[in-house]
Amino acid sequence: MHEPCKKNIREMFVPRSLLRSGKPPQAKKTKPVNVVRKDGRAADLIGDKRTDEVKDGQCGSESFMSSSQGQSSKDAIVEEKVKAASEHKETPPEDNDTADFPPSYVPTLEERKANSDASDDEAEAIISYSKDQRWPEPGEPVCIMCGRYAEYICEQTDVDICSLECKAKHLAEMEDERPPTEPSDGNDTLTDVDGTDIYKYEEHEEIKQLRDDQIEELRSQLGIRIKGNSVPRPVLEFRHLQLTDKLKENLEKGGYELPTAVQMQVIPAFLCHRDMMVCAHTSTGKTVSFLLPTIVHILNHMTYNPGTHDPLGLVLSPTRELCMQIEDQAKELMKGLPRMKTALLVGGLPLPQQLYRLKKGVQLVVATPGRLRDILAKEGISLSLLKVVIIDEVDTMFHMGFQEQVTDILKDVPDNVQTMLCSATIPAAIEKMASVSLANPIYVSVGEPSMPNEAVKQIIIWVEEPSKKKKLYSILQDPKYFKPPLVVFVESRVGADMLAAAVYKVCGIHCLALHGDKQQIDRTAILQKFLDGDIPVLVCTGLVGRGIDFPKVKMVVNFDMPTTTEQYVHQVGRAGRLGERGTCITFINNGSKYLFVDFTAMLHTQNVPMPPELANSPHLHHQKEKRKIHHQHRKHWTGKRKKGRWGDDSDSD
After folding, report:
1. Are 341 and 370 members of one domain?
2. Any residues with CB less than 8 A from the CB of 296 and at least 6 apart, and which?
3. Domain end: 412, 446, 480, which one?
4. Which residue in 79, 286, 437, 568 has a CA-CA distance of 20 to 30 Å to 316?
5. What does each C-alpha distance from 290 to 143, 293, 314, 362, 407 come to in angstroms?
6. Given pLDDT bands bounded at 50, 70 and 90, which one contains residue 554?
C-alpha cells in the first residue's frame, strides 16, 4: 500500500491510542536502514524487514525506486557514518533511536534492530478486517457492528469502529436508512448546508387567533404560572413552532408527539432569547424544553459561522448519569443536522479523550461543574463564544457544594449569554440568589412549586429502624405491591451494598446497588442493566434521584427518609413519567423528626394520609409551636414573599 493511501485512511479514522494520550495524529517516523558498529564496520540491515518496507513503498529515510538506487543510497550513508566515526566527530542523531545515546556512541545491530521492531509496532497500519481485531477487555469500547475492540472512531458518524470492513458496513447501513429526499413543504426556515435563511420564532396563526382570556384559561387548566414582561404565548402542538422538517422528524422518532405543559410555555419563550427560571415536576419534559431551543440557536449561529469549533451551548448538571442522559437526548434531537456535535465532560471517564473531542470541535457541551472547571484550568476549552447556558437542578448546584464551581465557570462566560435555571424544586432563597444572574427573566412554574408529582400515589408508613428490612421484604414478596422494575432509595453507600445483598439472599430477587463509590464503568453498566429489565430491583443513594428518567419504573421505596423535602420530591418523581401513574412508599420514624413540620405540611396540601405516629408525634407539635413563635416576628415579610412568588400580581423583590 502506497503512502498516499495510508494518509487517506488515517483521515477517516481516529485511533484509540491517540485518544488516550490526547495528542493529535502524527505522521510515521521513518528509519534509516544502515547503521555502523562501534568498530566502524557497516552493518547491512537489508533483509526481510527491509524487503517488506520496500513492498509498502517506504524504506527508512529514503524512497527506493529500484535496487540500484537503494544500494547507492546505502553506500553513501555508510561512507558518511564511517568517516564520522573514524574522526570521532559528534554528529547529531538522524532520528529518535540515537537521541538517548552519547553523541559519539553508535548503537549495535541488535540495538538498532530492537528499536526498529518497536517502531514498526507503533506504526502499525489500519486494520482492514474485523477478524484481525482482538476482542475487547472489560471497560474497553466495543465496535457497533461486530462487538470486537473498537480501536477507531468513524469521523463521519462519530461511532466506535474496529476496522475498515466494519466502517464500510456501518456507512452502508446509514445510507440505506437515509430517507429519500422530498420537496420542502415550505416550513424549512432554518438552513441547509449551503442555505442562508435563519430561524426566527413567530407565533403561529392559530395561536394569534386566540384571545387573551383563552390563553389565561389554558394556562390555568395546565397549571402554568408565569411572571415577567412580555411573556410569549404557549403553543399547543410542536407544529406551531414551525421548525425544520429534520427537527420535526427527530421529535417524532423520539416519541414526542405532543408537548407537555412545561414545553408548551418554555420552548417559545426560550426561542425568543429570554432568560428563564423554570420550576416543574419531575418527568414533565424539562430537558427537551431547554434542549430544543438551544439546538435551534446553535444552528442559527452555524448558518453564518460554519467553521466555529468552540462550543456554543453549555448544559451543567450535578451528576454524571444525568449528564449522560441529557447528552443522549441531545444527540437524538440533533441527528442528521449538519455540523452538530456534542461533548460529554464528566468525571470517571478518561480526560484525554474528552480533551481530544474538544479539539476536534463541538457545538454543545454537557458537563458536571467539577470536570469542566478542571478542563478550563488546563485551557482545554474556550467558553468565549457561548450563546446559551443551562443550569439543570439549580437548587442542587447552589446548595450542595457546587456554588463555587459554578461561579468560577460563569466568570468565563460572555455577559450577553442566554441563561436558563431549572429544577423540580427551587426554594425561595435559591430563587432570589440565582435570579441575580438573569436579565429581564421570565419565571415559569408548572403545577404546585416544589411539590411531589400528583400522578404518584404516596404511601407513608411508620417503621422503626430495626424493622425496616423486614418491612421491605414483605413488600417485595407481596404481588399486590411489588411491581418491577422498582427503585429503593437509601441514605448511605455502604447501606446500599448491604441491602442489595440482603434482598437477594432473603427474597431471591436479583438486585444490585448503585452509588458514587463505584467506578463509572460499573455505574453505567448497572444502570443500563436496570433500564433493559435485566435487574428487577435497584438499590441506590440519591445519586439517581435527580433528573434521571426511568420510563418503566412505576414504584419507588424510600427505605431511608430523604434528608430534605426537596430530595423527597425528586425521589417521588422517579415513579411517574410524563404524567403516568405510579406509587411511592416511604418509611419514616423519629430519626427524621427535624423534617416533620415541612413534610406534614406538604402531605396535608396534597391530602396524603399520614400514619397516626406521625400526625400525633410530640416532636411535630413541639416544632410547630417553636415555628409559630418565630413566624410572629416575621409575619409581614413571610406573607409578602408567599404572595409574590411565581405570580403576575407580585410586588416582591
Report:
1. yes
2. 190, 199, 243, 247, 271
3. 446
4. 568
5. 32, 6, 11, 18, 21
6. confident
**Residues 601, 562: one domain?**
yes
Contact 627, 620 (CB under 8 A): no
Buried b (16+ CB within 10 A) or exposed e, 501-539: eebeeebebebbbbbeebebeebbebbeebbeeebbbbb
pLDDT confidence tier of residue 519, bands split at 50, 70 and 90? confident
SS3 per-residue string spanning 163-211: CHHHHHHHHHHHHHHCCCCCCCCCCCCCCCCCCCCCCCCCCCHHHHCCC
Kindly tell me if the per-residue pLDDT of 651 is higher than 70.
no
When pLDDT is cut at 50, 70 and 90, the band that residue 80 belongs to is low
**pTM listed for this prediction:** 0.65
Q: For residue 240, give the DSSP letter.
A: G
Looking at residue 518, which CATH number applies to its domain? 3.40.50.300
The verdict on residue 258 lying in a domain is: yes
Q: What is the pLDDT of residue 102?
A: 42
Residue 565 C-alpha from the chain's centroid: 27
Query: Backbone phi, then psi, for 127, in 5-degree steps?
Result: -75, 130
Tell the residue number behind the cell numbers 420552548, with chain if given.
Answer: 267
For residue 154, the model assigns a pLDDT of 81
DSSP type of residue 504: H
* pLDDT value, residue 542: 79
- Cα of first residue to Cα of last residue in the chain, in angstroms, is 73
Describe the crossing of helices 286-304 and 245-253 by its angle, rounded to 10 degrees.
Answer: 150
Average pLDDT of the chain is: 77
Residue 558 pairs in a beta bridge with 489, 586
**Measured between alpha carbons, how far is residue 200 from residues 189, 190, 208 in Å?**
8, 9, 16
Asked if residue 304 and residue 244 are part of one domain, the reply reads yes
* Residue 119, CA distances (Å) to 4, 49, 113 in order: 20, 12, 10
Residue 578 pLDDT greater than 80, yes or no: no
State how beta strands 442-446 and 313-316 pair.
unpaired
